């Protein structure tokens, strides 16, 4: 039986999105996700810096993570990851894990953030495998979300949660400078 060779991790650097390069963020989304994202999605994501970021490989934007900070009545906050995507030729090279680890590290440095969570459609096996290997666990309930990522039909989603205080960065996820 042929054994699939694991590809070596790629060195990435981070780029903060701004009004000047938001078109790059939009292009990454249009290349990865089938849904179209409204202007408000990008405006909200740009308000959540430095959590929202793009990954550059050889000066080329190959991935992005978009976040939203949700303030709780207690004064604490929850960080919602609205999208995480890596262009398909660059998948399986550790980029998604590095972007997620960077967000968790920033969340840990922010005394107000307790939890980080995702909504993942139940049929997204790729994201499920990825999140499990990154230590995220399914919360005990699933939600049916109307208009998830702009789809017209409601979508069944699992809620993946990671407590910030319990997060231990996996080895080898430092983001190298290029
Ligand atoms: C999900 C996604 C972000 C993963 O990014 P990636 O850069 O390919 O993932 P990585 O190379 O960093 O992989 C990290 C870990 O997840 C695992 N993983 C990645 N893709 C996987 C898959 N399809 N099935 C099972 N496990 C997977 C890897 O084996 C690796 O595990 P390891 O650290 O134990 O070796 C990427 O596949 C993607 O953009 N998918 C389309 C968009 C999407 O579904 N986004 C939702 C994200 S929650």
From TrEMBL:
One of its GO terms (biological process) is mitotic sister chromatid cohesion. Transmembrane segments: none annotated. Residues 10-153 form the N-acetyltransferase domain. CDD domains: NAT_SF. Keywords: Acyltransferase, Transferase. InterPro entries: Acyl_CoA_acyltransferase (IPR016181), GNAT_dom (IPR000182), N-term/lysine_N-AcTrnsfr (IPR051556). GO terms for molecular function: acyltransferase activity, transferring groups other than amino-acyl groups. This is N-acetyltransferase domain-containing protein. It comes from Cymbomonas tetramitiformis.
């Amino acid at each position: 039986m042929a054994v699939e060779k694991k590809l070596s991790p790629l060195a990435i650097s981070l780029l903060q999105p701004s009004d000047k390069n938001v078109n790059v963020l939009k292009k990454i989304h249009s290349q990865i996700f089938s849904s179209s994202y409204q202007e408000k999605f990008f405006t909200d994501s740009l308000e959540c810096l430095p959590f929202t970021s793009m990954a550059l490989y050889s000066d080329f934007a190959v991935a992005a993570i978009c976040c939203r900070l949700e303030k709780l009545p207690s004064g604490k906050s929850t960080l919602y990851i609205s999208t995480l995507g890596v262009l398909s030729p660059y998948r399986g090279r550790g980029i998604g894990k590095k972007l997620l680890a960077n967000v968790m590290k920033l969340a840990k440095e922010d005394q107000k953030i307790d939890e980080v969570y995702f909504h993942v459609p139940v049929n997204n096996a790729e994201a499920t495998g990825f999140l499990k290997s990154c230590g995220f666990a399914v919360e005990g309930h699933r939600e049916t979300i109307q208009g998830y990522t702009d789809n017209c039909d409601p979508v069944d989603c699992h809620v993946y949660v990671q407590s910030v205080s319990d997060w231990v960065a996996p080895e080898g996820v430092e983001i190298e400078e290029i």
